[in-house]
Amino acid sequence: MNARPPAAPPATPDRPHVPAASRRAACPRCLRPAAACVCAFARPTAQRTEVLVLQHPQEQRQAKNSVTLLRLSLARCEVVVGERFEPAALQALLHRPGRTAWLLYPDVSATPSPNVANTVR
């Protein structure tokens, strides 16, 4: 009788190469391993400014993943994950009615807008 070893648990879409049974338990809120959960350190703050983060998919898998802490800490924070955005979708995200978009992490050679100090309070 040829016994076959039990089949490995199926991989999941977010980690196709790692069987689900072999991963550590994760916090459902911050998605970090339970031993590294940061939820106790996140203090939600109410702010008037809406924050939109366009996050590269590879950044989600980085150990630091500071966007998670930002999302947990800011009451009005939206995270959209993608590598390339269709022009119409990007325009819809950046040019919402009644909103002004500002780039938080510009390129090193970017020039600061002289209007920022006069419009952001």
How do the strands and helices of this protein lay out in sequence?
Elements: E1 11-12, E2 15-19, E3 51-55, H1 57-60, H2 66-73, E4 77-81, H3 87-94, H4 116-119
Parallel strand pairs: 3-4
Antiparallel strand pairs: 1-2
What does this structure look like?
This protein is of the alpha+beta class and 121 residues long. It has a domain at 45-104. Helices cover 20% and strands 14% of the residues. It contains 4 helices and 4 strands; from the N terminus they run E-E-E-H-H-E-H-H. The chain has helices at residues 57-60, 66-73, 87-94, 116-119, and strands at residues 11-12, 15-19, 51-55, 77-81. A two-stranded antiparallel sheet has the order 1-2. Strands 3-4 form a two-stranded parallel ribbon. The termini are far apart.
Query: How would you classify the helix and strand content by structural class?
Result: alpha+beta
User: What is the overall number of helices?
Assistant: 4
Report the C-alpha radius of gyration, rounded: 20 Å
Residues in helices, as a percent range: 10-25%
Strand content: 5-15%
Order of helices and strands: EEEHHEHH
Q: What is the overall pLDDT average?
A: 77
How would the global form be characterised? globular
The strand order across the widest sheet is 1-2
Our measurement of the CA-to-CA distance between the termini, rounded to an integer number of angstroms, reads 76 Å
Uncertain segments are: 1-11
Features:
121 residues, alpha+beta, two-stranded parallel ribbon, globular
